[in-house]
Write a structure and sequence with these properties.
Blueprint: H1 2-10, H2 18-30, H3 33-43, E1 46-49, E2 52-55, E3 60-67, E4 73-77, E5 83-86, E6 89-90, E7 97-102, E8 106-111, E9 120-127, E10 131-141, E11 148-151, E12 155-156, E13 160-170, E14 175-180, E15 183-185, E16 188-194, E17 197-207, E18 216-222, E19 231-236, E20 239-248, E21 254-255, E22 260-269, E23 275-279, E24 288-291, E25 294-297, E26 306-314, E27 317-325, E28 327-328, E29 345-348, H4 354-359, H5 368-416, H6 421-432, H7 436-444
Parallel strand pairs: 2-10, 12-20, 21-28
Antiparallel strand pairs: 1-3, 3-8, 4-5, 4-9, 5-6, 7-8, 9-10, 11-13, 13-17, 14-15, 14-18, 16-17, 18-19, 20-22, 22-25, 23-26, 24-25, 26-27, 27-29
The structure holds 2-acetamido-2-deoxy-beta-D-glucopyranose (6 copies).
Length: 445
């Protein structure tokens, strides 16, 4: 009965100690089978080790299972075959190792703050007549950190940006994927083996326009030990572009004594820091006050007439807008004509000299008299247009009416006799004037 128990216990084990097998072989050679069984019962001491997988920084439990332990010495060694514990007593000075259990069935040690350098086979040795051991393989998993995005060069509109998503350490290698608006962007993957861990990167190249500035991208790192979880790095595109400048003109007309407030609205990446206000061919008036993008002139006088320029620039270009100020006197208040503010915008992708730039905006200040003239001419033009339209309509109606009647006649003639062609042609010519040839074609159809 006792034998059966031992037999049942020993045989299903995946590992039966060498000692056990050696013993049985010796016995089988020399003695009878019954003796052998008897010896087996007494001698079947075994150690069984379990493989362990643990996250880096975690705690590993290394267990050696014993069978029929008879008080022999149990030695546990690290992968470099340094003895950690000699029958329960610490041998190696490394506080990360602790003996937590030593029973006749189980010897267990723990290793805290596991690092990849701790990987390898840990030896569970049982010193019996013949020394034998089992190896517990410790595997360390390194989870990837949230990946980083590296940008080689600043993105400039009209160009291409190269983005590299990098996961510096993982084990096994992490998988990286780029996404934009839920769509995956393929790229080049590269993987480097840094001994125990892997460094993975995925590089994408995307063309960028101004509208892409601020666009959201993400790089996801996935790893078998993260399950379905992903470590995601969000990245916003930073697309550089030359500035645009627009002066918001004041509504209505300005008269002496009014105050002027001009605001220059600027875009650009990077946003230009300095906004320059100037007056073409002149210096800014004394009363002009500049605060950021706003130019203010209180108590306007006609000496303020002129073209005002707002300029901005960044590393990618410069831009300017101008506004022509006309200050009307108090006497001509009766005029209700609104001058149309004239502004033009220019973007130069390459910085030019201020004089060159200024010359682009040279424009004669508007003569309000001319404006009035243009406006008074408008009613005549409208009346003329309406008359012309009326005349045109009448002519059209006439032509259609004549054409219809001719068509009727035409079919009649075709039915009557073809010999009457000449007569018809004459009639057609009479009716249609210059369109005779076209009329003939109609007949012959
Ligand atoms: C333990 O790991 C080693 C090395 O990876 C392997 O050869 C062995 O088969 C593993 N043992 C068990 C019981 O899984
Ligand atoms: C080894 O340690 C075990 C458990 O403490 C003990 O029972 C056994 O006698 C020891 N063996 C030797 C040879 O010291
Ligand atoms: C864990 O080990 C690493 C090096 O492997 C060390 O830098 C870190 O301080 C350790 N942490 C603790 C809590 O001991
Ligand atoms: C025009 O009127 C304003 C007040 O409405 C006055 O301050 C200014 O002096 C006047 N200018 C002239 C030239 O009369
Ligand atoms: C300023 O502009 C107004 C409107 O065109 C014009 O009437 C006036 O003569 C101009 N004054 C000067 C000093 O140019
Ligand atoms: C500025 O001065 C130049 C030359 O003196 C002249 O040709 C140009 O018309 C002027 N521009 C304006 C807006 O007055």
């Amino acid at each position: 009965m006792a034998f059966r128990t031992v037999w049942n216990y020993c045989v299903p084990l995946t590992i039966i100690t060498v000692a056990c097998l050696v013993r049985s072989a010796e016995i089988q050679e020399g003695k009878g089978l019954a003796d052998h069984h008897y010896t087996l019962k007494a001698r079947c001491q075994a150690v069984q080790a379990e493989n362990v997988t643990v996250l880096e920084g975690g705690t590993a439990q290394i267990s050696c299972r014993l069978q029929n332990y008879d008080g022999s010495i149990v030695v546990i060694q690290n992968p470099r075959r340094q003895t950690l514990f000699f029958n329960g007593t610490r041998a190696l000075k490394d506080d990360r190792f602790q003996m937590v259990l030593f029973t006749p069935r189980l010897v267990r040690i723990t290793l805290t703050n596991v690092s990849v350098s701790d990987e390898g086979g840990y030896f569970c040795q049982l010193y019996t007549d013949a020394t034998h051991h089992q190896v517990a393989t410790l595997s360390v998993v390194v989870l990837p950190e949230t990946p980083m995005v590296e940008v080689k060069q600043d993105a400039v509109e009209g160009g291409e940006v190269e983005l590299t998503c990098v996961s510096a350490r993982s084990k096994p290698a992490a998988t990286l994927r780029w996404f934009r608006n839920g769509r995956e962007i393929q790229g080049e993957v590269s993987q480097e083996d840094n001994g125990k861990t892997f460094s993975v990167s995925r590089t994408i190249r995307i063309p960028v326009e101004r509208k892409d500035n601020g666009a959201a991208l993400s790089c996801e790192a996935s790893h078998p030990s993260l399950g379905g979880q992903k470590r995601v790095r969000h990245y916003r595109l930073d697309v550089n572009f030359a500035p645009t400048v627009r002066i918001v003109p004041p509504p209505g007309i300005l008269r002496e004594g009014d105050s002027l407030s001009l605001t220059c609205s600027i875009t650009g990446n990077p946003l230009p820091r300095n906004i320059q206000w100037s007056k073409i061919n002149d210096s800014l008036p004394e009363r002009a006050e500049i605060s950021g993008p706003t130019l203010q002139i209180s108590r306007l006088s006609q000496s303020h007439n002129g073209t005002y320029l707002c300029q901005a620039q960044n590393n990618y270009g410069r831009a300017a807008d101008h506004y022509t100020l006309l200050v009307y006197d108090n006497v001509s208040v009766t005029t209700t004509v609104l001058p149309i503010p004239t502004t033009t915008r220019t973007v130069t992708s390459h910085p030019t000299t201020p004089t060159l730039l200024a010359s682009r905006f040279i424009q004669e200040p508007r003569d309000p008299g001319a404006v009035v003239e243009t406006h008074s001419a408008v009613p005549y033009a409208v009346i003329g247009g309406v008359l012309a339209l009326l005349v045109f309509t009448v002519i059209c109606v006439l032509i259609v009416t004549i054409w219809c009647s001719v068509r009727q006649k035409g079919s009649y003639l075709t039915h009557e006799a073809s010999g009457l062609d000449e007569h018809g042609e004459v009639q057609e010519a009479f009716l249609n004037g210059n369109d005779a040839s076209q009329g003939k074609k109609e007949y012959l159809l």
